[in-house]
Amino acid sequence: MDKIEDLLIATDFFPKIGGAHYWLYQIYRNWPKKVLACVQDYKNDAALTDLQIQFDKSDHGALELRRLDFSLDSVSLFRLGNLLKIWNVSRLLANITKCSVSRLHILRIIPDGYFAIFAKLLSSRDIKLIFYAHGEEFLVANTSREFRLFAKMALKKAGLIIANSHFTEQQVRKFFPEARVEVVHLGVNYSDFQVPASKVLAYRQKWGFPENTVVFLTVSRMEPRKNHAQVFNVLAQLLREGLSVGYVIIGTGEEEERLKRLAKSLDISDRIHFLGRVSEEEKILAFNAADVFVMPSIQLGPMTEGFGIVFLEAAAAGLPSVAGNVGGQPEAVLHGNTGLVVDGTNVKELYSALRYLVLNPKVRKDMGEKGRKWAKQHDWKNISQKVYNIISSFCREP
Question: What is the CATH number of domain 6-187+379-396?
Fold first, then answer.
């Protein structure tokens, strides 16, 4: 194996779908040097085995993948079976660092941090720890005394924390005020979202909406905090007013059946398309074919949006967004510029925002153009270079 300075640890990885590991994947596949990524092995998961084989054969840029079994019985550190597993895997990681690795990049404080902390202790080298913070893990950590204690300890040992938003930075500082935190917003593969108009039109026609319909789009897991139901209520009101609107939903989740029942009770089923899981190509076409991206997420319990890559994807496609005012969403969508930020719990506020965009095509166009510029600044190549510069500067310090 070539000399590699950077080792990435991710106990959750592709082919599973997830925003956190997508974030790190895009940063390190564009890294200027080779990176070894020790990631979860799903060979014993029948539903993921073939997908993993297919994924691992594809091009990953600067990333060299090595699959390990990080699976634990639970996320608790203080269970004998978990401690044995963490110890054994950490010994392997420490052995990997012997040749040239001097930096460990950790996706999550818990449980990824367990392996990183032990590996650093067992390593014969002076290893620097770089943790990534995406927001909700710190809200979850507050639900348990054990998690709170470990999060504080891990942050003290981390030399550097990369946070995806200023909101997330605030969560980090609640645990360790002296932490060195650098905020770097998420990114998007901007060029992927530039699609010929003819191809977009052909795809949009498949939805079957009348020609003048203003189409809302949501791309997310169907769970309560994504707030699809509130959009349904607004859609029903707009249709009662005689406005031609439609709604396309990409994703699956526990809320799907309830949402379908709600659509039926509101008599709007013919104006909603549930597309389920789609390919990356179809997702990009959907962003380009819609008129407004809407995901007015709310906070439920410890879960919230740390930032929201989907808002940058919408911007890259020239789509204005309507986002919630919690978490890092107001940093992903610039209110009055690339979209509108609302209180997702206030149906009147959401209604006013969507109605305004439906009735003002010029505003939609202007916001879309500003969104493209915003997204282009956040191309993953730029984001990766920014993170590389921050980490390189940190590592040069005495």
Answer: 3.40.50.2000
